[in-house]
Amino acid sequence: MAPPVNRRTSYSRKAQYSTFAAYVAGVLGVLGGGAVLASSVFGHSAFGWMHMVAADVQAPAARIGAQTRAGAGDALSVAGGFLTSGPENARLRREVALARTRAIETQAVVDENRRLKDQLHLLSDTPQALANAWLIASTASSTRRYATISAGGAQGVQSGMPVRTAQGLVGRVLEVGHMAARILLITDTESTVPVRRASDGTPAFINGKGDGTLQVRLLSLGLNPLKKGDVFVTSGAGGLYWPGTPMAQVVSLTHDGAIARPLSDPAASEMVTVQPAWEPTADPTLPPPTPDVPPPPPKKPKAPKSPKTGAADAKKHHP
Amino acid sequence: MIAEAAKKRRLLNGYSPILAYITPWAAIVLASCLPLWPVIASAPVIPPFGFLMLLAWRQLRPGLLPVWSGAILGLFDDLVSGQPMGSAITLWSATMLALDVIEARFPWRNFLTEWLVAALMIAAYVLLGLGIANAAMVNPAGGILLPLLVAPQIGLSVLVYPLVGRAVAAMDRWRLRRYRVVS
After folding, report:
1. End-to-end CA distance of chain B
2. Is residue B182 a part of any domain in this protein?
3. Which of A95, A262, A271, B86 is the most exposed place for a label (fewest CB within 10 A)?
4. Which residue does chain B place closest to A7, by CA atoms?
5. A131-274 sits in which CATH class?
């Protein structure tokens, strides 16, 4: 394409001014955007309400999308499956034969377990679900991992509530709109969840890595006791997440912890459950917290001595 | 005389002015919403379609989108993209200015140079977006791996860009389609 001969738009003053004004507006856009950015990065969630208005608007359309997502995902895996179908088929046949026997055994155990629990009048410690919702959208192009669910303030969802599926923890509610809420997935780089190893209670923290995996950081330093396949459940330390929610399984070890895979992959879950936030102090099985003792009233500062007496005191001490 | 002028105007303005000016804005807004749907992603893999669309419209029709349009469209993108508020406002405005400068510096252009410019813009946009999204990060876990995290997204975006350009060209033809019958 030929370059324009003259960069000047026209000899009309009006046209020149409007071009100039457009450039000024463009530069102001950069500066104003920078200001907004600084305030949203350093002053937290000043613009959350705008996000939630946007999420409320998208929610109806996205809900339809959520119901077709399973089909879309299948199409991709079908295409990939053509390459590996033969050996996969043989392996699956062997596995099914084994699993069928095991399923019957497990069913017997489950039945027995239920009967025993009924007998003991044990209550399940799983908290009541506050709301069930669809995962309707996620931020697929950004490095932050948020998702939107189809339940909001109208269903009683509040900020900070944990979100899980039957398989495990998905995240927690960050911002609440009227009929949609934005959740921070556990794979986000700013998500930190206190956990313990299911087998022996080794305490750790799990951070998201932003790429779908999780980083396990042990609380105690020293010899790394983790093994491949270890399962972590939430410990409930600090409140918010209910203790005992399955969360992640170790896939590889690092020198000071491990890389884990979430048990409940947000990409594979469609229905999620919002639970009320866990408050350790509201647990009836725990002893009540010590009542707040009001701090002793501050001592009245002594009346300042007059310089004369002060000088007299000083003289007294001096031999 | 008046009838003649009216006829001439109709001949020139066979297209709908509303459609002609709304289309690029609407296309970019819809493209911003595209990554929301229909997969729940556990890693950033989907190209930032809103940004690709902005680049493509700007390169196909310089001057159609005013310089300040980056701020308005960026504001909408921020609402849906999950980046901190203000990230796209800043980066998209800066992109519009940068493309103006590049156009003045290298007036001759062809497919390859446009693709190269777009590829550089995309890489810079995604990496800066990554830096912004994790600017306030207090989590030491992810550190060095993060730039590798977006490498597939950058590659995919660069490869997809010519297709977006094709889509924009089709929309451009549709936008200027004549729908009035000239008697």
Report:
1. 16
2. no
3. A95
4. B104
5. mainly beta
A–B interface: beta-carbon pairs under 8 A: 205
CATH number, residue B49 = 1.10.1760
What separation in angstroms does the CA of A53 have from each of A118, A160, B52, B181?
46, 19, 25, 42
Task: Kindly tell me the sign of the dihedral angle through the C-alpha atoms of B135, B139, B140, B143.
Answer: negative
In sequence order, which ranges of chain A are alpha helices (DSSP H)? 13-42, 48-120, 307-317
Q: Per the domain annotation, does B16 fall within a domain?
A: yes
pTM above 0.80, yes or no: no
* Domain boundary assignment for chain A: 131-274
CB contact under 8 A, B71 and A25: yes
B75: left (phi over 0), alpha (psi -120 to 50) or beta: alpha
Which residue spans within A139-270 are E strands per DSSP? 146-149, 162-164, 169-176, 181-185, 192-197, 203-208, 214-218, 231-234, 246-254, 257-262
Domain that holds residue B138: 2-175
pLDDT in tens, A191-223: 889 998 888 888 899 988 878 888 898 888 777
Tell whether B181 is covered by a domain: no
Is residue B183 a part of any domain in this protein?
A: no
The token duo for A251 is 């896939």
Region A159-176 average pLDDT? 86
- Convert the pLDDT of each residue in A49-89 to its tens digit: 777 777 777 777 666 666 555 555 555 566 666 677 778 88
Interface test with A, best of B29, B30, B32, B36 (most A CBs within 10 A): B36
Q: Which of A142-151, A167-176, A304-313 has the lowest mean pLDDT?
A: A304-313
Residue B70 DSSP label: H
Instruction: Residue window 84-143, chain B: list those with CB within 8 Å of chain A.
Output: 84-94, 96-97, 100, 104, 107-109, 129-130, 132-139, 141-142
Percentage of chain A with pLDDT > 90?
6
Task: Say yes or no: A220 contacts chain B, CB-CB below 8 A.
Answer: no
pLDDT of res. A313:
46
When divided into structural domains, chain B yields a total of: 1
| DSSP structure class, residue A294 | P
Pick from A309, A180, A165: nearest CA to A246:
A165
CA distance B126 to chain A (A): 8
ipTM over 0.90: no
